[in-house]
Each structure stands twice: as structure tokens, then as C-alpha cells.
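Appendix C reproduces, verbatim, an entry submitted by the partner laboratory led by Prof. M.T., so that reviewers can inspect both the input and the predicted structure.
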Amino acid sequence: MRGEASYQRATFLELFLDLVFVFALTRISARLIADFTDGQRGVLAGLGQSLLLFLALWAVWSLTVWSTSWLDPETSIVQTVIVMTTLGAMTMAVAVPDGFGARAALFAITYVSLQIGRVVYFHVVGHGRPDPRQTLRVLIWFGVSAPLWVVGGLANEGTVRGPLWTIAVLIDYAGLYLGWPTPRIGAQRIGGRMIAAEHLAERYQQFLLIAIGEAIFVIGLAFSGSEFRADQTAGFLLALTMTVLLWRIYFHVAGSVLDAAISRARDAARLATVMAFAHLVMIAGIVLTGVGFELFITEPFGHLPTAWLIAILGGPVLFLAGRSALEYQVFARVSRSRLVGLLAFGLLVPVAVHLDPLSAGGAAAVVLLGVIVADTLRSRRRSPETPTPAL
């Protein structure tokens, strides 16, 4: 386990693992872009499938981060698990494009093998330390969801795969959120108060930057493949501007003091858990926003299908909703600017259906800019806040 004076910055091996998830997010984005443009799967069906694949990848990453925030990442046992995770996550990522088709079995079996294999490896090589009861809790919960993943992956009917994987994801996330409650031995979130707050907070921040970096990758790929027309250049500049706005909204106060909030929490493990879900929503929003970038860069003044608003407006809405949840977790309140911003997006929808893609993106950028302006004015009138976690 980590000592109290252990070095809390992410190790180079952990950052190496993150590179795999950069690639994984690009594969998720590519699936979504295809769903919005070619219509073979249908937008809603494609969104659901991509969400399930994304949630499985996030579960792999988040459990790795919790483990390295509890156990010493410099030890050979933990480093071996990180390498195992790197190989498994890369296999899952290359299966993503056809993750609901020919490579569904590869994706599911790799996921199950990785989640269960890591727990078993920790227990065997660590001779039952540091907590054999935690090993049993996690294995029981994964033992319930694993058959659903495997059967869904091997099923010939795609209509069966979706429901089975949905139930499996709900089981896995319920276990993570509740601390894997098990008869007779109860529930316990990983690490409890032994979690390294600074390390965990930094890892959340780093993954959010990974998501923003993936959006920048989409922007560059879309514009480099365009004809460099004036309207496409305008879309390119607007997309870059929006990534800056997303970065600014996240790191304004709450996003930069996560470690202090976790350290001050009455229940640090529970706060860290709900923070993981807030970041999950924000990262999903950023990925979806990046898909919107692709749409209004390639077809800035073309016809705007109503479904495209799911990406162009829905992505920023998801991000802002997740950021509002994070602010509540850190300060036990939500700024009025975020609530007004969410309301503005809702009022924008009936207007945006009559706009072109670039104008709809511009309207979304104006709302995000309004949130930043309100935050800046508020911070000038008040002294810096100290985190007061709700938990």
C-alpha cells in the first residue's frame, strides 16, 4: 500500500497507459461520426452502442486509477497490472470500430479477462494482501456480469447483445458506486480513506485533458481533409475556440482544486466515486462535442439534420451538466451561470433546427462564452473559495 509520504504524481507508466485511451477515444469518435453521416446503424442505435463500448473502457481506466491511488504504483506487482491493462485496453480499442459486429466477442472476452484477471493476479501474487475481502467482493460482482458480457459477445443476434451488455454495464457500475456490497462481508470502496487524494485528482484532470486532446485530433483531421474553403476555415477556428472554452470552464476553480476537496471530505472514498461519475459525463460530452466539430467543419452551411443537434448542442450540454455536478461535489453549490447556461441550451434547440450547422455551433459557443464571462465577473467580486465538499 502507499505510504503517507509517497510520491503522488502520476508515474510515466501510468501516462503511457493513457496513450492507449487517447486511441480508444478516437475509435469511439470515428464510430459516432459514421453514425451521424452514413446512417447505416441509425443515430440513436449508434449512440447506444458507442456508449456501452465507452462505459466498458472507462470502467477499465477508472479501476486502474483507483488501484494506483491506493497501492504503490512503483512496486513490480502494480506495474505488471498496469502493463496488463495497457495490452488489454489496446485490444479492446482496436475492436471498437466493429465492437457490435464481428469483433464483439473479442471486445467482451478481453474486458472480462482483464477485469477479473487483474483482481486474481493482485490476490495471488500479493498473497491475499492488502484486503482479501475486497478481492472477494469484486470477484462476486464481476462473476455476475461476466456471463452477460461473454454471451452477448458470442451471440449471433445483435438485438440480444445490446440488452445483455446494458444489464452487464449497470451491474458493473452499481458495484463501483456502492462499493460492491456482498452478503456477510458488506461493502467497501477501494482504498477508503487510504486513497491518495492528490494522485486521484490529477488522474481525473489528465483524462479530461485527454478527451480535449482527442477533440483537437478530430478538428485537425476534419480540416486537413477539407477543401480549406472560407466557411470550412471558419468552422475550424470555431471548433478550436470551443475547445479552449471547455478547458476554461472545467479548470475554473472547481476543476483545479479536486485534491483539496477529496482531502477535506468527510467520506473521501464516496466523494472520489461520485467525482468519477461527474468526469464520465463531462468526457462523454467532450467526445460528442468533437463529433459536432467534424459535422460543422465538413458541412458548415449545408442542411442541418435534426439529429446533428445531438452532437452540436447535446455534447456541450452533457459537459456543462457534468461540470455542474462536479462543482456541487467540491463546493456544495452550483453557480447560477451553469444553470442559466443549461437553460439557454434548452431554449436554443427550437431555434437551432432552422440554422445551418456552423451557426448552430456558433450559438453553442456563445452560451459557453457567457458562462465563462459570468464566472470571471463573479470571481472578481469574491475572494478565492475554499473547497467545502458536500460529502
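The chain has 14 helices and no strands. Additional entries are available on request from the coordinating office.
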